[in-house]
Write a structure and sequence with these properties.
- Strand 2 and strand 3 form a beta hairpin.
- The protein has one domain (2-12, 25-64, 122-342): Histone deacetylase domain (Arginase, Chain A, 3-Layer(aba) Sandwich).
- Helix 3 crosses helix 4 and helix 5 (124-143) packs parallel to helix 6 (173-183).
- It has helices at 30-43, 57-60, 65-80, 105-112, 124-143, 173-183, 200-206, 255-272, 298-309, 325-342, and strands at residues 2-4, 17-19, 22-24, 48-49, 148-151, 189-193, 212-219, 244-249, 276-281, 315-319.
- Strands 4-1-5-10-9-6-7-8 form an eight-stranded parallel beta sheet, with helices on both faces. The protein has a two-stranded antiparallel ribbon with strand order 2-3.
- The chain contains ten helices and ten strands.
- The protein is an alpha/beta fold.
């Protein structure tokens, strides 16, 4: 299996995250990708290639243009205020407030942010843009006939909505890749999100569509970020009714319970009969992940990689979360190796 990877991910190197009432070193840090790529090379998984640049059009096919312009200019505008730290929103257009877009950067941070844990730092836009190109390169290789690809995206993307960032995500890499496949000849594409956290951004982008099926297995939002999407009764709207499926699972869920949900999810994907599958691959379902509450062991990742491969679909695996940095390389490559062995 080929891996798409760029050193530009290091440009996203925030120093602050708001966690448990304190500013701490972010859980989403450059060493995550470094551990994964080291494991990819150590195991001889396959060639590592650099991303091509597909420009802005595929990004703007998914995200609101004003939101993208904000991402491009936010750091410069924030720096111009003379602020000494990284940009963290302090106010939002909460219930019953006006939805007008403010002029000042403080207001626009809150308008476009869905959470306050994700600080905006120097190099964020450049890294996010490169991450999207990493996903697009994998999608293009799939379109050309490659059986499976791994896009080692960082920063991750599945929390980024049509016009909101947060959850460490700025551009929705998996959604951008799925839309690219749709725009280039594939009539039906499925997105399977196995990250611990619900892919609220991906759901938001495709919720009213019947050509892209979205299914997510995740921690119950009553207990886990992002809290306000991902309930079982959310199944799509309008033309998209029935084309979203959510499997919220309770604290302490182990692999047996998680795999039952996966079997159901894979069955739904199979019945949708897509021409390609995009997997939002988060390994924060691991039993010692610091910000999650599932109980998967390292060998379980190998097993479910094989389960996904059994669909027999052209598959793009796009990296999302996973915050036990010491084990992230092992767990990620276990999924990929399990997939390869069963393909």
């Amino acid at each position: 299996m080929e891996t798409v990877f760029t050193e530009k991910h290091r440009l996203r190197n925030a120093r602050t995250e708001l966690f448990a009432g304190q500013l701490v070193e972010p859980f989403e840090r450059p060493s995550r990708a470094e551990h994964i790529i080291a494991r990819v090379r150590e195991t001889g998984l396959g060639p590592v290639i650099a991303p091509e640049d597909f420009g802005m059009d595929p990004i703007l096919d998914v995200h609101d243009a004003k939101f993208v312009a904000f991402l491009q200019s936010a750091w410069a505008e924030w720096s111009a205020t003379g602020a000494g730290g990284e940009a963290i929103p302090t106010c939002w257009p909460a219930r019953r407030m006006s939805g007008r877009i403010p002029t000042h950067i403080d207001g626009r941070l809150g308008y476009y942010a869905l959470a306050s844990e994700t600080s905006f730092s120097e190099g964020t836009w450049e890294a996010a843009h490169a991450s999207a190109q990493t996903a697009l390169t994998g999608a293009e290789r799939l379109r050309q006939g490659t059986r499976a690809m791994f896009s080692l995206c960082r920063p991750p993307g599945h929390h980024a909505a049509l016009d909101m960032y947060g959850g460490y995500c700025f551009l929705n890499n998996a959604a951008i890749a799925a839309q690219y496949l749709r725009a280039h000849g594939m009539e039906r594409v499925a997105v399977l999100d196995v990250d611990f956290h619900h892919g609220n951004g991906t759901q938001d982008i495709f919720y009213d569509r019947s050509d892209i099926y979205f299914v997510s297995i995740h921690g119950d939002p009553l207990h886990a970020f992002p809290h306000f999407l991902g309930h079982r009764d959310e199944s799509g709207t309008g033309a998209g009714e029935g084309y979203t499926a959510n499997f919220p699972l309770p604290p302490g869920t182990g692999f047996d319970g998680w795999r039952i949900a996966l079997d159901d999810a894979l069955d739904r994907v199979s019945r949708f009969a897509p021409q390609a599958l995009v997997v939002s691959l988060g390994v924060d379902t691991f039993q010692s992940d610091p910000i999650s509450f599932f109980r998967l062991a390292s060998d379980d990742f190998t097993t479910y990689g094989a389960d996904i491969a059994a669909l027999g679909l052209p598959t793009l695996l796009v990296m999302e979360g996973g915050y036990d940095v010491a084990e992230i390389g092992l767990n990620t490559v276990n999924v990929l190796s399990g997939f390869e062995a069963a393909a």
